[in-house]
UniProtKB/TrEMBL annotation:
Pfam families reported for this sequence: M20_dimer (PF07687), Peptidase_M20 (PF01546)
Name of the protein in its database record: N-carbamoyl-L-amino-acid hydrolase
Organism of provenance: Siminovitchia thermophila
Keyword annotations of the record: Hydrolase
Domain of life: Bacteria
Domain Peptidase M20 dimerisation intervals: 212-310
Length: 413
């Protein structure tokens, strides 16, 4: 490391973000830039121009992921990759993953104008369809190159209008070659907004992300007996909705006993859903999150016992099916340490935390030593036009990324 600390060009970075904010802008100050849409294409075109202007070798792979590679001294060696995604939710925010891509670009610009030669190459990435808003599930670009989804699966996913991922990719002119996929990388670093309220509430500037919380989804089916609301005495009922309601309270209350546990019932269907009929069947979902895999499954086992007891007393049948289990991702110490060192050297406030949502870094952690840098979301608002990260925090986050890249890619002595 050089003694004097390099810093990003705040005005240039904010101007770059301003240009991005004008592509696909929505009515109330946000962005509506769905993956592989016309707006996404326009953003990609400008982004590619920016990469080329910095002298980077640009590649597009068969998932439409965009890479710009900056040579290192050991050009055959593994690269340090930085980036995130430029797509947004419908009427989403201007910051989200966009900051991760545009701060990465600013890092490249600073390295270039200071003639910094790194030991290892640095690659900037824009991943396709991180949001999963147009093509579900999310994180298809990073999931594709890491083998979490097959090409066939991804290509056949259709949007609401029946347009396939493959077709949309061709339509906007970003169908690249599988040869161009990212390979041989040593690190991946993703800067992202927190999307939660913790940094803002704790008045910290930088989140040293420890990993991504594990997340399990279940479907609970409660079967009782449909009957007429008038003649059926209360003691004779097998009311699925009353039983389900007691269960949902338990789902909520278990989080009081286990620190950091988050439980959500976000969806419920009542059958027949008629005013004068006792509900015969209720189906609801449970979302459980905690960074400790063992604690999370232990919580679920306890919950299962409690729900079974309610089912027995309420004379209803209970069926629980697992929809999705995602283990906690732990980020690499080498990246977490570099972020901590950067924060200390730059004199910024920081705290360690886990990410609630998933990110491209989750898949990238399977193939490289990976980490994330969080910057605060004002009031924790995200996936919303009101999403806001302050200019000072953006600048500081970018400085941390710049430091971490120099540290991990190795600057010339
Ligand atoms: Zn994101």
């Amino acid at each position: 490391m050089e003694k004097t600390l390099l810093k990003v060009n705040r005005e240039r970075l904010l101007e770059t973000i301003k240009i991005s904010s004008s592509i696909g802008s929505s009515a109330h100050g946000g962005l509506h830039r769905l993956a592989l849409s016309e707006a996404d294409k326009n953003m990609r075109d400008i982004f590619v121009d920016w990469l080329k202007a910095e002298g980077l070798a640009v590649r597009i792979d068969d998932f439409g992921n965009i890479y710009g590679r900056r040579k290192g001294k050991k050009d055959n060696g593994p690269s340090v990759a930085i980036g995130s995604h430029l797509d947004t939710q419908p009427c989403g925010g201007k910051y989200d993953g966009i900051l991760g891509v545009l701060t990465a670009l600013e890092v490249i610009r600073v390295l270039n104008e200071n003639d910094i030669e790194t030991e290892y190459p640095v690659e900037i990435i824009n991943f396709t369809n991180e949001e999963g808003a147009r093509f579900a599930p999310p994180m298809l670009g990073s999931g594709g190159i890491t083998g979490n989804f097959t090409k066939d699966f991804i290509y056949h996913i259709k949007d609401d209008e029946g347009i396939s991922f493959e077709q949309a990719l061709k339509d906007i002119g970003y169908m690249g070659d599988s040869e161009n996929r990212l390979k041989n990388i040593k690190n991946f670093i993703e800067l992202h907004i927190e999307q939660g309220p913790i940094l803002h509430e704790q008045e910290k500037t930088i989140g040293v992300v420890q990993g991504i919380q594990g997340n399990d989804w279940y479907t609970v089916k409660v079967a009782g007996k449909t009957n007429h609301a008038g003649p059926t005495p209360m003691e004779n009922r097998q009311d699925a909705l009353v039983a389900a309601s007691k269960m949902i309270v338990k789902v909520n209350e278990i989080a009081n006993d286990i620190k950091g546990l988050k439980t959500t019932v976000g969806k419920m269907d009542v059958t027949p859903n008629v005013t004068n009929v006792i509900p015969g069947e209720v189906v609801f979902t449970i979302d459980i999150r905690h960074e400790d895999n063992e604690l999370r499954s232990h919580a679920f086992e306890r919950l299962k016992e409690q729900l079974s007891a309610i089912a027995l007393i309420s004379k209803v049948e209970l069926t629980i099916t697992t929809d999705w289990n995602s283990e906690t991702t732990l980020f690499a110490p080498v990246v977490k340490d570099a972020v901590k060192e950067a924060v200390t050297e730059l004199g910024y406030s920081s705290m360690e935390l886990f990410s609630g949502p998933g990110h491209d870094a989750k898949y990238m952690a399977e193939v490289a030593d990976t980490g994330m840098i969080f910057v605060p979301s004002v009031d924790g608002i995200s996936h919303n036009e009101q999403e806001l990260t302050l200019d000072d925090d953006i600048e500081k986050g970018a400085n941390v990324l710049l430091y971490v890249v120099q540290k991990l890619a190795g600057t010339k002595k």
